[in-house]
Amino acid sequence: MLRERTQKQLKEVLAAGAVGTQQNRSERDSFAGMYAARLARLWAVERGLVFGRLDHTEEGRLYIGKLGLSDDEQDRLLIDWRAPVAQPFYRATPTAPMGVTRRRHLQTRGREVIGVDDDLLDLDGLSDDDRATLNGEAALLAALDEKRTGRMRDIVATIQSEQDRVIRADLNGVLVVQGGPGTGKTVVALHRAAYLLYTHRERLERRGVLILGPGLTFLRYIEQVLPSLGETDVMLSTVGELYPGVSATRRDRPEVAAIKGDVRMVEVIARAVRDRQRVPRQPIELPLGRQRLTIDRSMMENAKNKAARSRRSHNQARSVFVRSLLNALARQLAKKLGKGLIDDDELADLREELRTEPVVKSALNRLWPYLTPQRLLIGLYGSPERLDYAAGNLSREERALLLRTSTEWTEADVPLLDEAAELLGDIDEQVLRATAMQAEEELAAARAAEEREKESELAYAREVLELTGLSDIMDAERLAERQRGDQPYLTTAERAAADRTWAFGHVIVDEAQELSPMAWRAVMRRCPTRSMTIVGDIAQTGSSAGARSWGQALDPYVAGRWREETLTINYRTPVELMELAQRVLASIDPALQAPTSVRESGAVPWAAPLDRLPELVLRETEHGGRVAVLGPDVLLDKLADQIGGVTGRGVLEASVAVLGVAEAKGLEFDSVIVAEPAMILEQSPRGASDLYVALTRATQRLGVVHDMELPESLGGLAGS
Ligand SMILES: Nc1ncnc2c1ncn2[C@@H]1O[C@H](COP(=O)(O)OP(=O)(O)OP(=O)(O)O)[C@@H](O)[C@H]1O
């Protein structure tokens, strides 16, 4: 009914057509956007729309659902799970019943109720030991035992009390959610996003919510959770995609990523920009017809100082630099022409004349080029001289690791591009177009000159063209669209994604332990209000530039002002598997404690020789559900060949997937086989954390296959 009404409203709005004034059009677009979003909500929540009932002593009976519904008389039919009155559904216990006498979990399939599970909360003397930690055990255990589908699902029906506290925590300030594997950090963070959007709808819809995850596979794994809760306008991204126009999925070798993520790169980038403003030792001679002008060092220094005093970014300060130099050149020219003192008007005339002279333009571009962050970094990585100048605070070996010629961006480059963008500032679109055109002209002129062996000018013109290439910043289509001014309806998330300087209303960072100090800087820039939820597990840090403690990561920004909640119960991994993982955890640090598992699977982890892998994979698939083989990166292709498993893009859909540990981070499978654990240990300085991650990905069964000797922490495993 509701859905039909919304669909009709949407149709009417769209039928109004594309005619009309600019204002009409944009009103129409925003109504259409509103109805489309509402419709998406109603469609998405079909599954398990109603899942709970509270019998209150005072307020009577309340039904809890994924969204709130009222009938035409405004009587509440269904309470949104995020509303304050729904809170007892997650928090009430026999000792603190919050006025509720009975909590009922309804399990539904389509429109049919297929099971109920009651918690009686008001019975005096009821032993509450069993119920103290878990709410609605039967519904929870049924949910946990289900076969996995390759996509994360919402847990509104079975949120546990410690999770509810995180979900409903205050919007303001930085909240860290620390929890071991399987404690629900990801799923809780997503429900928190939905809760915050519901509770602070106006503020957050305008500024948007950003959720950062560790990789594109992971984002695909979680992307359906928020829509299933009726929330569609949230931006999901990786750090590698945070910079508009760049989509970095490649990873650097650990030793290179460690340098690029190091906070010393702040100084390196700043010096790389200053390198492009350096005054050459020799004066520059400018042949102008029969005259010959000279740009000497003092003119250049003077112009540079003026630009510096303007305190503008590099690209914005260029006009100050250029004006100062042109004024000095104009005076020089006046003198050569035999004119004495000239007035302001004459100076302006001469200056504008000089501005259009190719030799002058080309000298100015060399002295203070327009720069995009991409060109700055390519220039830096590609030149040992530039690296020596900019990266004097790194060792010679570290500089050598940064040197490269490839222009394919890696994840660790993105925070550096962002850093550079801050210092370089925008290039005006108009200037950009004019400079690109001018560069084209210069290139054409230089081509003609090439015959006259003016090699250097050609090289320079090429550089200018490259430096100002429009494609770096916007493609032709987008530019044309902007000029026509007919932007299609864009959601907040879409507008935010295209704008590097967008300030989000709330930012959620998942697997946050992996972020480098440079990545934290880029993330913090997107959230000046510091309203953030940071979820992760320090014990799982695999990245060489990742965090060793939350304090180390956050204190530079919010020292003493962040709060921490801990999740302690593992909902994913059965007890039998966790015993093994705990041994690996203790090998990292004996003081570390893995979270407590809520259930047993009865399946004991096993070990077998590597060459039995195909047969063992087959056996696992017979249980139904999804199987993953997790191994060291160098073995992945071989393993996939051996068993016909899927790697890369299709891993979430595959019944047998083959993945490296970094890619498997945050994911889960019914059955996991870890290949060559000793090699996983060796492949990076944080190998033990990687092994811990690999061993905690299964919801049911776990095995290990190996040729190399098993690490000590895995000793004593039963044969398969
Ligand atoms: N209250 C709950 N009800 C039902 N399922 C739950 C609940 N809490 C967590 N789960 C399930 O437990 C599994 C693990 O959750 P999640 O992936 O969010 O954990 P995590 O802490 O992010 O793990 P990791 O650090 O290993 O990535 C998921 O399948 C999730 O749906």
Keywords for this entry:
720 residues, alpha/beta, Rossmann fold, 6 domains, six-stranded mixed sheet, six-stranded parallel sheet, 31 helices, globular, binds adenosine-5'-triphosphate, helicase, DNA binding, DNA_helicase_UvrD/REP, P-loop_NTPase
Number of domains: 6
Per DSSP, the total helix count is 31
- What name does the CATH topology of the largest domain carry? Rossmann fold
Strand order of the largest sheet: 3-4-2-1-5-6
Question: Tell me, what is the CATH class of the largest domain?
Answer: Alpha Beta
Q: pLDDT average, as an integer?
A: 84
Give the helix proportion (percent range): 40-55%
CATH superfamily of the largest domain: P-loop containing nucleotide triphosphate hydrolases
Summarize the structure.
This protein is of the alpha/beta class and 720 residues long. It is built from 31 helices and 22 strands. The strands form 5 sheets. A 6-stranded mixed sheet has the order 3-4-2-1-5-6, with helices on one face. It has a 6-stranded parallel sheet with strand order 9-8-12-13-7-14, with helices on both faces.
